[in-house]
Structures are given as structure tokens and as C-alpha cells.
Amino acid sequence: MGGGATIPARDRLIVALDVEDVAAARALVATLGDAVSFYKIGMELAYGGGLALVDELKGGGKKVFVDLKLHDIGQTVERATRQIARLGADFLTVHAFPQTMRAARQGAGGLRLLAVTVMTSYDDSDLAEAGYATSVADLVARRAAQARDIGIDGLILSPQEVAPIRALVGPKMTLVTPGVRPAGAALGDQKRVMTPAEAIAAGADHLVVGRPVTQAQDKRAAAEGIVAEIAGARRA
Ligand SMILES: O=c1ccn([C@@H]2O[C@H](COP(=O)(O)O)[C@@H](O)[C@H]2O)c(=O)[nH]1
User: How far apart, in Å, are the Cα atoms of 185 and each of 12, 42, 189?
Assistant: First the structure.
């Protein structure tokens, strides 16, 4: 799952299980079948009891990414990370603040950590509104370099930053991009987006896709279409 060209196309797609409870998640996983090998459990499902699914999905041969975006005082982040590591997931997200990342590193053991740089629903004006006197591009780069130096395994960033950040952090960090929309799909609240083929061509390792699959009329066909687009993309 590192930053390499050897990952099968199917394993590059991570479907966000953004549903309200375990029953809905199980139904979605059953519908998608072998079209999807990698799932993300985020806040909505986790707060609906979904962390119990980590073990179940892993037992079914799937890879699992726990997207809780931890951010708290150091002791809390370290101890929460240690608890999540016991679940057996493949990845956990934490916000890319140095204190937070160092604490998570202490608690992670073998759990791989992804640092969330700047949410893909933000643009420069959102950062300005929040009091940051910097552009998205510069803040992503600053946080990516800090994550690399702290020993974080990978980054969450938009596909638009993948090429410059790959050049900055080198080949080892895993670059995971939400903000992915097949051509013509609704953007929803995402602001920094690319298509699956563009994201892969830029050098992304994994693409997180939620609504374009979970809200599609034919969910399995939507997932298969994205995997086919990934397979056909020319990697950087
Ligand atoms: O910067 C970020 C970090 C995480 N996400 C998560 O990815 C999915 C995207 O869902 P879509 O329906 O494809 O927009 C969702 O679970 C987010 O919590 C992100 O979008 N951006």
C-alpha cells in the first residue's frame, strides 16, 4: 500500500462507507461484492457503531481505513491511537498538526497513519475565513513536509496537490485523495477535485470515493467504472 506503481487498480479505490449504521454498511458491502476491496469507515458510521465492522471486513478479505481525523491534546491522541490500533485496521487519519502527529506516532505501533493536510472541501477563501494567511497549496506543502519529518506514513490531500507533493516528499509516502469525481458527477461540497484518471495520472496511490458510488443508481457498476478508469489511466 506504499507509494508504488504495483498496486492493483481495484485496491486503489477506497469506497467511503458514509451510511448511518452497520446494517446499511453491510448491505452496501454486499451490493458491491468483489468490485470493491478497500473500505473507509468515517465519523458517520463510526458514531453509529461502525468500528465493529473493522474486524468483519478484514475477516472478509477487505482492507479497512479508519477515518476519524484525530485532533486533541497529545495524551488523548496517543491513547486513542493505541485503542484504534487494536482494531486491526490498515490506516488511521489524524490532522496534520505537528503535536497531533507526534502523539499519534507514539501510539500507532504497526498501524499506518495518514495525515489530513487541508480538507478537500476548502479553498483559499475558506482558509482566509478561518484566519490562515496562506494558500491551500502552501499549507498542504508545509504540513506534508512536517508529516514526512515526523515519520507519518502517508497524506490525505486533494488530487490537485499530488504532483507537487510527491516531488516534495518522495516516493515512500502513501498519497490518498478524496475530492475525486468521475466526469459529470455532482461535486457536492468538494472544492478541489479531479477525475479518477487525472488523480492517478498525477501520482495518487489511492482514491477515496463516496457519493459517486454510494448514491449511484447501480452502485456496483459505478465502482466498476471507476476501477476501469483507474486501470486505464497512465501513471505519472
Ligand atoms: O479532506 C478530506 C478528508 C476526508 N474526506 C472524506 O472522504 C469522503 C469523500 O466522500 P465523497 O462523497 O466522495 O465526497 C468522505 O467520507 C469525507 O469524509 C474528504 O472528502 N476530504
Answer: 19, 22, 12
User: The domain that contains 103 carries what CATH number?
Assistant: 3.20.20.70
Return the residue whose CA atom lies nearest to atom 19 of ligand 1. 178
Could you give the CA distance from residue 215 to residue 169 in angstroms, rounded to a whole number?
35
ipTM for the assembly? 0.99
The secondary structure of 56-118, three-state, reads HHHHCCCEEEEEEEECCCHHHHHHHHHHHHCCCCCEEEEECCHHHHHHHHHHHCCCEEEEECC
In a domain, 1, yes or no: no
Report the domain count for the chain.
1
Compute, in angstroms, the gap from residue 128 CA to the centroid of ligand 1.
21
Facing residues of 94 across strands? Answer: 70, 115
Active site residue 67: yes
72 carries an active-site annotation? yes
Phi, psi of 154 (to 5 degrees): -165, 180
Q: What are the pLDDT digits (tens) for 53-108?
A: 999 999 999 999 999 999 999 999 999 999 999 999 999 999 999 999 999 999 99
Is 208's C-beta closer than 6 angstroms to any atom of ligand 1?
yes
Is 156 known as a binding-site position? no
Question: Which three three-digit cell numbers place residue 144?
Answer: 506534508
14 domain residue, yes or no: yes
Residue with the smallest CA separation from ligand 1 atom 14 is 210
Domain that holds residue 217: 9-235
